[in-house]
Inverse folding.
């Protein structure tokens, strides 16, 4: 296959294999971090990637590594890369790929696969991986020979990040990884593929520009509204629309409501924040400008009874199909920041502002004050054994004390996440990672690792239920191995939602003496798990112990687990989602 390059006879004979060509192609595409688990046939892909300057973060389980890759894509705006082995490695990786799809974050899963000559014979870890990834990937490609590698790498990366971001898949058969080309030929393949791929993918997924007519329809709807509301989500965060959003909110005086991961684009403490008057804001608004957020379950589908019957939705989304499905009053297809800038420009020519005394703004701010003072009342008490409020208040105060740069807050669990979302303030964009669109447990440790790697100037603080933590708890070893500045706070109430909440009549049958399906070992020593790997573990049961553990671990900026013992009967079954259980 190798042809010597007449211009470079000295390196025309240097041979490189598929592993090296994958690494070179990734580096050339700007990849600087990878997450994964090595083994046959991809170990050399990882070591060659490191050799060309890519940081490889090695995990215990592809599921966590995949969650990390997806969050890394969200935080950095560049596709996160997951590397897995074939068969079961690829299957575990589907967790990450589906997470990228459902949260619309850019990610590429790269899996080794079995030798192409042995397909159908029951080879080691054989699986039709292209078929397996289909429901969760925007684009997938198999490099069927070494000369396909650069093009496949660039195409997968370009598709992941273009249009509506999502997961893509690259399949690398083991025979291809062992094929060889000359170094000169490798350079040619890379150069040619680079040139072709970016322009072609861009053309295929070009986003239409919003018409100025639609922009003025949007602005006049907002201008004429009695009770306008601006809703934004992680799509706006991904588009880095924070400055444009803040400008729109402040110039018009329209109250705003972030989705959980939209929190922080405009600070939670802003006087126009309607989060603490969520029911009123959603229930009464007559025009809602929804930016980078889908009208899914998190926003009650945009339907009555939570929303009023005749609310006019103006949807800003990068995905035309998403808008067409919803049939809103008006859809503006495009990048959230670009669309907001057009809206801001149109408003600037004929400004309007509701002002503090506008009845709608006043009604919202009154509701906010009531809700906040009720919440503060609950937070003020020192309750021991701990409920959710007391430790969350202590954590909140400590986070506020840290100031800027704010830590990245990772959160999962039911009660822990739901109460935590209301108590813990988000002051800066893209500083919250939680269970997301699917409400997925097990994302926490992967997200912590992604955040630590993506945001080296920030501390990472995870507030997790003990069940949520347990899904990927072994990755605390990964925190220690790479010495990442991550403090994992486990709200240990002994189970999924906490203690055994069964009615006595449900406790029958031959296995009635088994622990409840929701129960774990009470007061499990999760801090000892951290000790086992040489990180710092704490167990705390009262305010003084928690404060001291937070002081020490936040200033050490080293891996730590704080095991917070919580009353198993505090909180509610299913957290906030009791109506769905
Ligand atoms: C992948 C996945 N499996 C199972 C669930 C169902 N589930 C919802 S919340 C939860 C755990 C809640 O317990 P915990 O994390 O301890 O939080 P708590 O309510 O006790 O604070 C589980 C298992 C889920 N959301 N995702
Ligand atoms: C081959 O030679 C070219 C030109 O001298 C050089 O740019 C390139 O880096 C060389 N490749 C390798 C793999 O040595
Ligand atoms: C009170 O505020 C919390 C968040 O701070 C919010 O989740 C809850 O929905 C609010 N209650 C109402 C009735 O709006
Ligand atoms: Mg729990």
């Amino acid at each position: 296959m190798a042809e010597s390059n007449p211009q470079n006879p000295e390196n025309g004979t240097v041979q490189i294999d598929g592993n090296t060509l994958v690494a070179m192609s990734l580096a050339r595409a700007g990849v600087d971090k990878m997450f994964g688990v090595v083994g046959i046939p991809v170990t050399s892909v990882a070591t060659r990637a490191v050799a060309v300057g890519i940081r490889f973060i090695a995990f215990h389980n592809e599921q966590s590594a995949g969650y990390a890759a997806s969050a890394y894509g969200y935080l950095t705006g560049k596709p996160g890369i997951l590397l897995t082995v074939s068969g079961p490695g690829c299957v575990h990786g589907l967790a990450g790929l589906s997470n990228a799809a459902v949260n619309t974050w850019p990610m590429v899963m790269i899996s080794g696969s079995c030798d192409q000559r042995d397909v159908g014979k029951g080879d080691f870890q054989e699986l039709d991986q292209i078929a397996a990834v289909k429901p969760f990937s925007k684009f997938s490609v198999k490099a069927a020979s070494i000369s396909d590698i650069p093009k496949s790498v660039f195409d997968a990366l370009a598709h992941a990040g273009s249009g509506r971001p999502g997961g893509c898949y690259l399949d690398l058969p083991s025979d291809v990884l062992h094929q060889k080309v000359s170094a000169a030929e490798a350079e040619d393949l890379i150069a040619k593929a680079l040139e072709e791929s970016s322009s072609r993918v861009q053309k295929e997924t070009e986003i239409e520009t919003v018409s100025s007519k639609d922009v003025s329809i949007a602005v006049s709807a907002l201008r004429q509204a009695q009770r306008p509301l601006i809703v934004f989500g992680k799509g706006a965060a991904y588009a880095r629309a924070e400055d444009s959003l803040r400008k729109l909110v402040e110039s018009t005086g329209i109250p705003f409501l972030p989705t959980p991961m939209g929190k922080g684009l405009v600070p939670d403490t802003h006087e126009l924040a309607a989060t603490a008057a969520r029911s009123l804001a959603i229930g009464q608004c007559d025009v809602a400008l929804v930016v980078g957020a889908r009208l899914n379950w998190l926003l009650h589908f945009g339907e009555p009874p939570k929303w009023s019957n005749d609310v006019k939705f103006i949807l800003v989304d990068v995905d035309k199909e998403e808008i067409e499905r919803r049939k809103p009053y008006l859809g503006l297809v495009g990048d959230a920041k670009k669309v907001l800038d057009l809206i801001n420009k149109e408003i600037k020519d004929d400004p309007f502002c509701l002002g503090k005394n506008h009845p709608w703004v006043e009604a919202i701010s009154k509701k906010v004050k009531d809700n906040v003072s009720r919440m503060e009342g609950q937070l003020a008490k020192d309750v021991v054994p701990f409920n959710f409020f007391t430790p969350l208040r202590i954590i909140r105060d400590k986070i506020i004390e840290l100031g800027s740069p704010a830590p990245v807050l990772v959160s999962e669990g039911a009660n822990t996440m739901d109460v935590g979302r209301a108590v813990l303030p988000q002051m800066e964009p893209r500083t919250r990672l939680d269970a997301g669109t699917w409400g997925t447990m097990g994302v926490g440790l992967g997200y912590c690792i992604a955040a630590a790697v993506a945001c080296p100037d920030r501390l990472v603080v995870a507030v997790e239920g003990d069940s949520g933590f347990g899904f990927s708890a072994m990755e605390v070893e990964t925190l220690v191995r790479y010495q990442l500045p991550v403090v994992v706070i486990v709200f240990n109430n002994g189970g999924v939602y906490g203690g055994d909440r069964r009615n006595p009549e449900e406790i029958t049958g031959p296995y009635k003496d088994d622990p409840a399906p929701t129960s774990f070992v009470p007061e499990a020593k999760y801090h000892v798990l951290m000790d086992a790997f040489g990180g710092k573990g704490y167990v705390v049961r009262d305010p003084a112990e928690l404060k001291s553990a937070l002081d020490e671990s936040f200033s050490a900026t080293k891996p730590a687990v704080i095991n917070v013992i919580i009353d198993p009967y505090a909180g509610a079954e299913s957290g906030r989602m009791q109506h769905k259980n």
User: Anything to note?
Assistant: Residues 8, 11, 14, 183-184, 187 surround 2-acetamido-2-deoxy-beta-D-glucopyranose (ligand 2) (CB under 6 Å).
